[in-house]
Amino acid sequence: MKSSPFNTQWLNLLFRLSISGVLALSAVNGNAITYYKSTGNHGEIRFSQFPPTNGKFEVVELRSDGRQVDAGQMAGTTDPNAQNNAPTTQDQEKQAMQKRIDELEKQENIRRCQSLRNNLASLNSGGRIYEQADDGSKQFLDDQTIEQRRDKIQQALNQYCSGQTT
């Protein structure tokens, strides 16, 4: 049976549409796409996302950018129960967010420790030390209160700021 130019053109168009569909799906999914290439009963080339039940077929994998995977480059698992240890985009976003939170907490802790050091330096400077009351008036601290505040600030520095340098 001869194939007419119309059949060849139609098969060519079908092939291109199939590949375009696979590429579009791979762009949306972001993962490698696996499809199966086989030959039909009448010699026509068939493409399917499901493996054919009879006859020989070729497994084709496409990367997310649409290029065909080289053999061994992406050793795809055929076991649907196999676990994928690669981090997902959501996991990566969580890790990045946690890293950012940790960095902000570290910066805030550094700022607080510097504030404690400044307060301790003020208490150790001598002279008359005062605090501003809620109504805006000055309340001068006596020696006993200053000593208690020094001890309290030193304890906080030892507990939260050990190992930090200014």
Question: Tags for this entry?
Answer:
rod-shaped, signal, three-stranded antiparallel beta sheet, alpha+beta, two-stranded antiparallel ribbon, DUF4124 domain-containing protein
In short:
With 166 residues, this protein is of the alpha+beta class. Helix content is 48%, strand content 14%.
Question: What secondary-structure arrangement, pairings included, does this model have?
Answer:
Elements: H1 5-29, E1 33-39, E2 45-48, E3 57-62, H2 89-124, E4 130-132, E5 138-140, H3 143-160
Antiparallel strand pairs: 1-2, 1-3, 4-5
Helix pairs in contact: 2-3
Keywords: Signal
Biased composition (Polar residues): 75-90
Protein name: DUF4124 domain-containing protein
Tell me about this structure.
Residues 75-90 have a biased composition (Polar residues). This is DUF4124 domain-containing protein. Keywords: Signal. Residues 1-32 form the signal peptide. Residues 68-99 are annotated as: Disordered. By secondary structure, this protein is α+β, with helices and mostly antiparallel strands. Among the domains are: 33-68, no CATH class; 89-161, no CATH class. The chain is built from three helices and five strands. The chain has helices at residues 5-29, 89-124, 143-160; strands at 33-39, 45-48, 57-62, 130-132, 138-140. The strands form two sheets. A three-stranded antiparallel β-sheet has the order 2-1-3. A two-stranded antiparallel ribbon has the order 4-5. Helix 2 runs antiparallel to helix 3 (143-160). The longest helix is centred in the middle third of the chain and has 36 residues, at 89-124. The chain is rod-shaped, with a radius of gyration of 35 Å. It starts with a helix and ends in a 6-residue tail after the last helix. The model has no long low-confidence stretch (mean pLDDT 78).
